[in-house]
Structure formats: structure tokens, C-alpha cells
Specification:
By secondary structure, the protein is of the alpha+beta class. It is built from 29 helices and 17 strands. The C terminus is likely disordered.
Length: 658
């Protein structure tokens, strides 16, 4: 029931509408479900690869694509009966419900009452960060494995049983198949929980003169640093001269970094923390073995993805995303956690833009808001010391990671580094390159803290428990209400119905086209192309995946025809020599492309692009409507497509690689 309220009126339009635009990431996630089933059942191929995108260069594998194979597996028996759109919507609702149930189970494991655990699960389901992700990031809504991983890990720490350790590995693999980021998050959450169980941080009581002297020196240096920063902010020049040497100070990254390090060292000297190992029961040796079992199970279950990564590495097809100190993806604004519900139908249009960067994907990527009512309840309980310190630290750690490498406050870059500034350079961990998504495990932590707070306050206010509970529920319902949600039509234009009447033979080139991934774009590929492919089924030239290797981009750019088409799709001028080279390569291109249809979007394609395609490819128009022009290729040469590089299902079942 709660799921229906949070997504209303979607339950009334399951087969016709979506919560996100088909021309955005939502359309690609719908395509993920369809292509998984299509490759497996229609073609008998291993469903972690396809030649239905990037058809000119032999297709692509999904080892680094946000593919949601778990959802694809669950959708397998449903798509044939319900259609891909209705299946997608039902899975979205199911995953949202499971996220709440998983948090409920975790909260019960932590000793909360049924009512308090239900409150924690319901709050996580209704959290603005998950509501925002529902509009574009289907994989991130599959958040149940995060809570289930913690539940299984806590069971293992308590019982030390082998079966529980196996369960930890299974859930970690499920998390990885839900979203690649979630597999990494499970590793980080596991480290945090194990560290909290076996490490104790205490303040050193020893007093040493050298510490006092060093503290005074650092304090003086901090005062000088703060004075310099204040002077530089007010009217300082771009450079200063020290001992006849010029020092450029065009930004505050380096000065603030130095000051941050000085403050950190000064704080360490003042507190002098001492980390102590704590294992009175001698459980760590047994648990180390159980941890090895969990890791082995997870690696075994995720081996198809790992093999794909290994093959990419051998073929030098791994995307190389450089991590730059100053310009890698930012995190959420610190004040974003305090924004009134940005999804609210009354005031969400106003608060949604608060503290968001000026980027097309700012919503939902940088939403981190948590209910102000819930934060107030947590604050009261924390003041009374009714919330466990380890879960406060857990929540604070992931909230800090979500702030990114440099902390923004009120839309202003403070240049102060956060923990992600260093953690992003750790192998594997750095692959979770969008730190703003750490707001999801942070929301999980906040929800647990809220459950602890409700549990404690209900005991202290036993005489008025039901009245206080009703008042709190009403306040949260008013603040968190997202309905009615904006819905987007999932209708497929009639022109795709026309070419769908044909079989899959021959490929489709949509104009404009290109190559797009999560970090860059060549040409101008429309993600709706993949969504519409669920109806017409023809392989397409170009494509959109989460990560596309430099090798694949270079392979496409070396093709004269594609180089010109990509350039004109971007709207840039193309040299006459390139145009002539592309025209001369017509037969070579068509022979490999096996092109059957060219579809021109009249609103997105320039006249220059359309005219070039018609003349260079020798096209004949067969249909025109208000939105599209449909062409076929006149007198095409014999088709000689590239061989598909990826493995077939029978090779996997036989335990052999080609």
C-alpha cells in the first residue's frame, strides 16, 4: 500500500507510462530488461553481450554497463506475458517494497521493536533520495541488498556459522548484479561494521612536552594560514613574492589543502587517539575464515562479470577514466541533506533546485535530502544518547563520502577535502566514480537512527505513545508526500511499428546518432533509440552504455562515413575533404553496416545532416510524418557484417571459452 501511495498514479498506468523520460536513462533501463531476454531466448546468446548496439563494430559486452542483470533475470518470464513497460514498472514497485522490507529485517536484527523497525523501513522507502532515483536510476532503487548485506553480516558476526558466511557472499553478489556501485558499497559497509566490532579508539592520557610544543607551532601556523586565506579572499593578488620567487595563487585548492592538513594534525595532537584491538572472545580467527568463504562465494557468483572485465583488459578495451585531483565528479552539497522534500507536489518545484549544480542530470543525481522531521527526532534522541554511537559513525562516514572530493556548502566550493578525495584512488573503490550516490547508504543509516530514536522515545513516552506516534506519522506523511508523481508516456511512434513488421534482418541508422556513455558523448545519440528498439528489434548503428572504451570510440571514428555523420550530428562543420572521403566509402560502409533503414528525426537532425545522408548513402524515402523521415537504401551492396566477438551461451555451459 505504501509503495502505491509513493508512486501514485503509476499503479493505474503500469503498461502505458513511466516515472522517467524514455529519452533519458529510464528508457535505457527498460531496454536492459528487453535485451537480456532477447539475447537469451531469441538468439540463444549469453545475455551479458549484444550486437544490437554498436552494430557496425560487432556489438558490445555489458561488463561495465549498468545492466541490472538481476532485474533482467526476474523480468525473463514476465515480459512475454505483460510487455516490457509493465514488467519494468512492476519490478520498480517490487524493488521499492523490498528495500523497505530489508531495512525492517535489519532493524529487527538490531533489536528494534516491530513498530520502530517498520518506521525505519517505511522512512527509507519514502526517502527523497530514493524517490528521486526512481525517475532515472532504476538500478539504484534496488537498494534491498545493501540492508540485507548488513543483516547477513551481523548474523555471521554473532553466529560464526559457515552458512551465514555463504549468505553474506550471495547477498554481496546480488548487490553487484543489482548495481555495480552496490557491490563496492557492500565492501565498504562490511569494513565499517567489522572495524566497529573489533577496534576501539581511545584518547591517549599521556602528556609529553614535545606534543605541547608541536601543538603551539601548529596553532601559530594555522593562524597564519587563516589570515592569509582571509586576505586572499578579500583582495589578494594572483601571485605573491617570497624571497624573490613568484608563487601563483590563482585558486585556493592548495592553500586550503595545507590548512586542512595542519588542522587535522593539530586535532590529532590534541586528542592523540589510540586504536586498540578488541576481541575478548577470540572470535576473529574463526571469522577471518568465514570472511574468506564469503569473498570466495561472491567472486564465484560474479565470475561472468569478472571474466568479461578480464577479456576487456586483455583486448585493451577497458575504459580509462582518469581521476584528476581537482576536476573529478563532485558530490552533493552539505546543505542538500537539509533541503525540504524536493519531490513534494506543493513546494518541490522550488526546493528541488536548491544547492544543485548547473548540470542536466543534477536531478536526480545530486538529491540527498532527508526528512527534516526525522532529523529533528534523531537529534533529540542523540542529545539524550538514545542512538548507538556505531550507527551514528556509520551514517556520518557515508554522508561524508557523499560530499565528494571537495566539500560544497550552499553551492560554494570550500576547497576542503573530504574522505572521498583520497578513497577514490583506491583500486576498485575508485570505480564508484559518482560520490553523490553514497547518499543512499547514508539514507539507510539515517533511517536506522530514526528507528532507534522512535524505539527509545516510545519507551520514555509510554503514557502517550499512540498520540505521539500519530502526530509523528502525520508530520512525516505531510513532509514526504511525493504524489501525484509526474508520468511520461511510453508510447512508441508509429514509424517504429512500420519497420517492426519486418524481421530483424538489416540494421537501422537513426539520425542524429553517435556514441554516448556516462562520461562523454560523440555525435548526438538519443537514448530513446534503445527504448524504441524494444519494439522494432533491428540492430542500430551507435549506442549508449554506461562505459564505452576508448578503443571502441576510436574504431568508430576511423570509419570515414561515421566520422562525418558524428560530426554533423554534433552540429559542427566538416571539412570538404572528409565529406568526399565519406562519399567514396559508401559501398564499403554499407557492406559492413548491412544498413536497411535510415530514420531521420526532423526536430533533432539538421538539414545538412539529412541531405548528406540521402546523397552519400543513396537513400529512397518511403515514409514521412510530423516527426520522422524514413528511408531505405537503394541498390545496397551484398552484406558482410562483422563477426560478433562475444561468447555464446553454449560456450559458457560447456565450460569453454572461444
Amino acid at each position: 500500500m505504501l509503495t502505491g501511495v509513493l508512486t501514485w498514479p503509476l499503479p493505474r498506468h503500469l503498461d502505458t507510462h513511466l516515472l522517467g523520460r524514455p529519452s533519458g536513462d529510464t528508457g535505457v533501463y527498460v531496454w536492459n530488461l528487453w535485451i537480456f531476454r532477447h539475447e537469451l531466448l531469441t538468439h540463444g546468446n549469453f545475455p551479458l553481450a549484444t550486437d544490437h548496439v554498436f552494430a557496425y563494430t560487432g556489438g558490445a559486452d555489458f561488463s561495465l554497463h549498468n545492466y541490472t542483470p538481476l532485474a533482467g533475470l526476474l523480468a525473463l518470464p514476465l515480459i512475454g506475458m505483460l510487455g516490457v513497460v509493465q514488467t519494468y514498472n512492476l519490478l520498480l514497485l517490487a524493488f521499492l517494497t523490498c528495500s523497505g522490507i530489508a531495512v525492517f529485517l535489519l532493524a529487527r536484527r538490531l533489536g528494534l521493536s516491530g513498530v520502530s523497525a517498520w518506521a525505519a523501513g517505511a522512512l527509507f522507502m519514502a526517502s527523497p533520495v530514493l524517490t528521486a532515483k526512481e525517475t532515472a536510476h532504476f538500478s539504484l532503487v534496488t537498494a534491498a541488498p545493501l540492508a540485507l548485506f548488513l543483516w547477513a553480516l551481523l548474523r555471521t558476526l554473532d553466529s560464526r556459522r559457515l552458512l551465514d558466511a555463504v549468505l553474506v557472499g550471495v547477498v554481496a553478489a546480488v548487490a553487484s548484479y543489482s548495481d555495480a556501485y552496490y557491490g563496492i558499497y557492500c565492501g565498504l559497509m562490511g569494513l565499517a561494521v567489522v572495524a566497529a566490532a573489533f577496534l576501539r579508539v581511545e584518547r591517549s592520557t599521556s602528556e609529553r612536552a614535545r606534543f605541547r610544543t608541536a601543538g603551539r607551532v601548529l596553532t601559530a601556523a594555522i593562524v597564519v594560514g587563516v589570515t592569509f586565506l582571509a586576505w586572499r579572499l578579500v583582495h589578494g593578488p594572483d601571485e605573491i613574492v617570497v624571497a624573490s620567487r613568484r608563487i601563483l595563487v590563482r585558486t585556493l585548492y592548495t592553500p586550503v589543502l595545507v590548512l586542512t592538513i595542519l588542522l587535522a594534525v593539530r586535532g590529532w595532537l590534541a586528542w592523540r587517539p589510540r586504536v586498540r584491538f578488541h576481541d575478548p572472545a577470540g572470535a576473529l580467527r574463526t571469522l577471518a575464515g568465514r570472511g574468506a568463504v564469503a569473498v570466495a562465494v561472491c567472486l564465484a557468483l560474479t565470475s561472468p562479470l569478472l571474466v568479461g572485465l578480464a577479456l576487456r583488459s586483455v583486448d585493451e578495451r577497458l575504459p580509462e577514466t582518469a581521476i584528476y585531483w581537482r576536476s573529478s565528479p563532485r558530490g552533493v552539497d552539505l546543505l542538500a541533506y537539509l533541503v525540504p522534500n524536493p519531490n513534494h507536489p506543493w513546494f518541490g518545484d522550488t526546493t528541488r533546485q536548491w544547492f544543485l549544480p548547473d548540470r542536466p542530470d543534477a536531478y536526480p543525481e545530486y538529491i540527498a535530502a532527508f526528512p527534516l522531521v526525522a532529523l529533528a527526532v534523531i537529534a533529540v534522541a542523540a542529545w539524550r544518547r538514545h542512538v548507538p554511537r556505531r550507527w551514528v559513525v556509520f551514517t556520518a562516514v557515508f554522508a561524508a563520502l557523499s560530499l565528494g572530493p571537495f566539500i560544497y556548502v550552499g553551492g560554494v566550493n570550500t576547497y576542503v577535502i573530504g574522505p572521498w578525495a583520497l578513497l577514490r584512488y583506491v583500486p576498485v573503490v575508485g570505480m564508484a566514480r559518482s560520490p553523490a550516490r553514497f547518499a543512499i547508504p547514508a539514507a539507510l543509516g539515517f533511517s536506522l537512527l530514526f528507528g532507534f530514536a522512535v524505539n527509545a522515545l516510545s519507551h520514555r513516552m509510554a503514557h502517550m505513545r499512540w498520540a505521539a506516534g500519530a502526530l509523528l506519522t502525520a508530520a512525516l506523511a505531510i513532509e514526504l508526500l511525493p504524489a501525484p508523481r509526474t508520468l511520461y508516456s511510453a508510447a512508441v511512434p508509429m514509424v517504429y511499428e512500420m519497420i517492426a513488421s519486418d524481421n530483424e534482418s538489416g540494421r537501422l541508422l537513426e539520425l542524429p546518432t553517435g556514441i554516448r556513455d556516462g562520461t562523454s558523448s560523440i555525435g548526438n545519440f538519443n537514448p530513446a533509440t534503445e527504448f524504441f528498439q524494444t519494439r522494432h528489434r533491428h540492430p542500430v548503428i551507435g549506442g549508449y552504455l554506461s562505459r564505452v572504451s576508448h578503443a571502441r570510440k576510436a574504431m568508430n571514428r576511423r570509419v570515414p562515413m561515421l566520422r562525418v555523420v558524428f560530426g554533423l550530428s554534433e552540429g559542427r562543420a566538416v571539412a570538404p575533404a572528409e565529406l568526399e572521403e565519406a562519399r567514396a566509402s559508401r559501398d564499403t560502409f554499407l557492406r559492413r553496416a548491412c544498413l536497411k533503414y535510415v530514420l531521420v528525426d526532423k526536430h533533432r537532425a539538421s538539414d545538412e545532416l539529412r541531405d548528406f545522408a540521402v546523397q552519400a548513402l543513396g537513400l529512397t524515402r518511403v515514409h514521412e510524418d510530423d516527426e520522422y523521415l524514413l528511408y531505405t537504401v537503394a541498390a545496397p551492396p551484398p552484406c558482410d557484417p562483422p563477426k560478433r566477438r562475444e561468447r555464446r551461451l553454449r560456450w559458457v555451459l560447456a565450460g569453454r571459452l572461444p
